[in-house]
Amino acid sequence: MSKYKYLLWDIDGTILDFESAEKAAIKTLFERFNLGECSDEMIERYSKINRKYWQMLERGEMSKEKILVERFVEFFSKEGMDAGISDSFNREYQLALGDTIVFCDDAMDIIKEQKKEFEIVLVTNGTAVAQKKKLEKSGLQDIVSHIFISEIVGYEKPDINFFKKVISEVGINDLSEVLIIGDSLTSDIQGGYNAGIDTCWYNPKGIKNESSLSPTYIIQNLHDLDSIVN
C-alpha cells in the first residue's frame, strides 16, 4: 500500500510538453504578425529569456502581468525587431499555447491509472487563459480532482501561500501523504520544500542540479513514478 494519497502534478514541462507548444505558438504568430520566418535558434533564445523572467516571478521580483509582456520586449529588442507589438503578441500567444497538446511520457495514461488509487491535483503557474484552454483540449479537466492555477489562487509556486490554499481546499490533513511531481526546481521542488511535502523532480534531460535543493526523488521518465508511489 502506498504511503501517498495525494499526487500534486505540475502541468507545463511535466504532464504536457511545453517546448512543443511554445515552438508551435511562436512560429504560428510570426506568420500571423507578418514577422518573417522564426528559426529554431530564435526560439531557443526566446526560451532562455522566458525562463529568466519566470524565475523572477517565482522570486517575487516582478508581477506576472509585467513578465508576460517584458519577456517579448526583450526578445524582440535583441532580435532587432519592433518591440511595440509585445503586448498584442503576448495576448495572442496565450491563446495559441493551448492549440498544441503533446503529452510527456504517456502522462495522460499514467494519470488515468493513478486516479484509481490516488487523488490527482494539478498545480500550475501558467496563465489562466492558456491553462484553461490546455486543460479542456487535453481532457485533463475531466479526470482530475482539483486544479489550482496560480493566477486564480493569487499566489505563485513556490510561495507557501499557494500550497496552503491547495492543502486547505483539498482537505489534506497529513502532509506525509502528499507528493508533488514537477520539472522545475525553483517552483515545484522549492514549493514542495516550503510546504513540507515530499518532492519528485522530473528531469528528462538529465540536467545537473546546481541548486541547494535535494528532491526526495528524481526521475527521467514518468513511468518511473510507479515504483515510487506503489
Automatic annotation (TrEMBL):
One of its GO terms (molecular function) is 5'-nucleotidase activity. Coiled coil: none annotated. SUPFAM superfamilies: HAD-like (SSF56784). InterPro entries: HAD-like_sf, HAD-SF_hydro_IA, HAD-SF_hydro_IA_YjjG/PynA, HAD_2, HAD_sf, PGP-like_dom2, Pyrimidine_5'-ntase_YjjG. This is Noncanonical pyrimidine nucleotidase, YjjG family. It comes from Peptacetobacter hominis. Signal peptide: none annotated.
